[in-house]
Design brief:
- The chain is an alpha/beta fold and 462 residues long.
- The chain has 2 domains: 12-269, Spore Coat Polysaccharide Biosynthesis Protein SpsA, Chain A, CATH 3.90.550.10; 290-398, UDP N-Acetylglucosamine Acyltransferase, domain 1 (3 Solenoid).
- 28% of the residues lie in helices and 24% in strands.
- It has helices at residues 39-49, 87-96, 119-132, 184-187, 209-216, 223-232, 235-238, 262-273, 281-284, 405-416, 422-461; strands at 12-16, 54-59, 75-80, 106-109, 113-115, 136-144, 153-158, 164-168, 192-206, 242-247, 256-258, 294-296, 301-304, 307-308, 312-314, 318-321, 324-325, 330-331, 336-338, 341-342, 347-348, 353-355, 358-359, 364-365, 370-371, 375-377, 382-383, 396-398.
- The strands form 5 sheets. Strands 1, 2, 3, 4, 6, 7, 8, 9 and 10 form a 9-stranded mixed beta sheet that branches.
- A hairpin with a 5-residue loop joins strand 7 (153-158) and strand 8.
- Helix 2 (87-96) packs across helix 5.
- It starts with 11 loop residues before the first strand and ends with a helix.
- Keywords: Cytoplasm, Initiation factor, Protein biosynthesis.
- Its main location: cytoplasm.
Length: 462
């Protein structure tokens, strides 16, 4: 039985900092910052401004540096356990503890969720629905038009009340008309809307009864699986549980996203750079923080619509547009970085070109390198001119150095040719020289094509 409600209980949020499963393999997007700031900081800053007074951060391991609210609006505590096997175990642990269990409607923020919605207004709307019908259990935030960075959902929503009827992640599977068999409102003549390409933003307003559901059903491992299985099995209709679908309204300045992959990290980064998180980005950093301490060798440079960390050096003739540059990054001369993320302690040498890619910490881009679209390089890799032959994947993870293959070939050739006569060496050098000239012309043509693409894109943006 649920605990009696306490009218004086402060608005509480349960924030998942990770999957709460220490045995699960982390994804490539796990732990990546958003504009050089941890995602958890973004989430807690928005909650603090929205009137949330207590945030319980759930994680599989201790988090040493939590968000500190300078106005002391939000009390943050970290609850962690290495024995949890998912969100479900964490919620069951919360339900068992009197000092943690919410006794009134509360907020759940999933790992990777990014939003600027005022959750206090969502909570107020949720309470009004529950006052009219106590069976309303969840208000879940969705966004129309997931975009190519996410695998969109297909949902069915009752048009009149906003009740979520179907929720499927398999957009290729058909939506059977038998949804009417389990829904009383549809049987009585109400209409339903089928919405495809929907993004689940990982933000929910929940009633305390949700924790009871998790306590009594140990096979629920995630909030999302609970929603899907309740709807797919028809249990929501049988037991009277109702779930409301709140669609984000961008016309009102609302924004919500979910960082679940490298592609979604790149798209969310671009969205935030373009101001979609206002005004809440002011609580994360002020206007000056978007451009940290930069050491310029020359004053001839371009940095537009980008977030730059501290102690960054940029040489003459370089251009950084719609990108994020981490701390202690060195950028050489005549470098172009477009819609990319360069993390801490990395180096991008002279005349290099980086487009729509992500470089982990301590990467080293050698001179005259061209990194094509949608590349992801793991920590500490060296990337050279040979990288221009890499095919463009959807953020394919490279875990080996991508240095000039020709350098290795030439080194091996020198060892093989040590004992040969000068005439043969001369012929080999001539062939190598011609090969280098061809490669140089190829890189130059590719550089020109990518610059044209950048100019065309800038023209569209303007």
């Amino acid at each position: 039985m649920a605990s009696p409600k306490n009218a004086d209980e402060p608005l509480k949020a349960l924030v998942f900092a990770d999957s709460c499963n220490s045995q699960a393999a982390p994804t490539l997007a796990t732990g990546k910052p958003l504009l050089n700031t941890p995602l958890l900081t973004w989430q807690l800053a928005v909650l603090a401004r929205s009137g949330v007074e207590e945030a319980i951060v759930l994680s599989s391991a201790p988090i040493p540096d939590l968000f500190h609210d300078p106005l002391q609006r939000l009390h943050v505590r970290n609850v962690h356990s290495s024995s949890w096997n998912g969100e479900g175990d964490a919620l069951r642990d919360i339900e068992r503890r009197d000092d943690l269990r919410p006794t009134d409607d509360f907020v759940i923020v999933s790992a990777g969720s990014v939003f600027n919605l005022d959750v206090s207004k969502l909570l107020e709307q949720h309470k009004k629905r529950r006052k009219a019908d106590h069976n309303w259990l969840i208000t879940t935030v969705l966004r129309r038009g997931a975009g190519s960075a996410w695998k969109g959902l297909v949902v069915v929503v009752e048009s009149q009340t906003g009740t979520l009827i179907k929720y499927t992640t398999d957009y290729k599977s058909p939506i059977n008309i038998d949804v009417m068999e389990h829904n009383t409102a549809l049987q009585n003549g109400s209409q339903a809307e089928i919405v495809s390409n929907v993004l689940d933003c990982g933000l929910d307003i929940c009633s305390p009864e949700l924790l009871v559901e998790f306590r009594e059903n140990f096979y629920y491992d995630r909030v999302r699986s609970y929603i899907r299985e309740k709807l797919e099995g028809g249990e929501a209709e049988v037991f009277g549980n109702r779930m409301y679908a709140h669609f984000v309204d961008s016309r009102k300045g609302q924004y919500a996203s979910s960082v679940t992959s490298l592609a979604s990290l790149a798209q969310t980064t671009l969205d935030v750079l373009n101001g979609w998180m206002k005004p809440y980005d002011e609580d994360v950093f002020n206007d000056d923080a978007k451009q940290g301490t930069i050491h310029f060798f020359q004053s001839s440079y371009i940095v537009e619509n980008s977030a730059v960390g501290n102690n960054v050096s940029i040489d003459i003739g370089s251009t950084v547009i719609d990108s994020v540059i981490g701390n202690n990054v060195q950028i050489g001369s005549d470098v172009t970085i477009l819609r990319s993320i360069i993390m801490d302690h990395s180096q991008v040498a002279d005349r290099s070109f980086v487009v729509r890619s992500i470089l982990e910490k301590e990467c080293n881009v050698l001179p005259d390198s061209i990194i094509p679209n949608n590349c992801y390089f793991k920590r500490g890799l060296r990337i050279g001119p040979a990288c221009d032959s890499i095919q463009s994947y959807s953020f394919y993870a490279h875990d080996e150095d991508q240095t000039t293959r020709q350098e290795t070939d030439e080194s091996e050739a020198e060892k093989e040719e040590e004992g040969e006569e000068g005439e043969e060496e001369g012929e080999e050098e001539e062939r190598e020289g011609e090969g280098k000239r061809k490669r140089k012309r190829k890189r130059k043509r590719k550089m020109m094509m990518m610059k044209k693409e950048r100019n065309l894109q800038m023209g569209k943006d303007n």
